[in-house]
Every structure is written in C-alpha cells, then in structure tokens.
Specification:
Keywords: Plasmid. Helices cover 52% and strands 0% of the residues. The protein has a domain of 65 residues: Orthogonal Bundle (434 Repressor (Amino-terminal Domain)), CATH 1.10.260.
Length: 95
Amino acid sequence: MEKENGENVSNTSDKASKTGLVIRDRINAIAGVNRHSNYKIAEIIGKSERYVRDRKDGKSDWKLGDIELYGEATGYTISEITAKEFNIKPAVNER
C-alpha cells in the first residue's frame, strides 16, 4: 500500500509506543544490573539478537510473553515490570 507522496504504508510501526519505551527502559535497566548482553536476553526468551536489539533500541514494543520470560529469569513478575512504580532489584546469580 502506498501513500500519495509515495511512502510505503504498513500496519507495523518503526517505533515503540510510550508505554513500550517505559518497558524498554526497565528491561534495559534489568539487563544492565544483570550484565546481560543482547545475546543472553535472546537466549533467555528464545528470540534472535536482532529481535532483542530492535526492542532495546525502541524500534518495536516488547511482547508480553517476552517480558514474562525475561522477568522470570531475572526475579521479576510481569506485574512488577509493567507497574506504574518500578524498583530495580539486585542481580540474580547464575546457577
């Protein structure tokens, strides 16, 4: 589909929503405390590094299932990550 000015139009956005950016910042903070690379996050949630990078860079929103998986691996519930107030926790030790 094309607009009048010739730009392509699709149903997907190339930017995360405002809420998505808040979630992104929280996940980035959790990843920082836990020293998780994009590779490690991708491994935890079963997605590609590119997928993780696009979300960490704010190009796309995180999916609820991914937030839940990463939260479980780092000691957070999905409710804690998405709540109005957020508190960072100490790093989770690898077992």
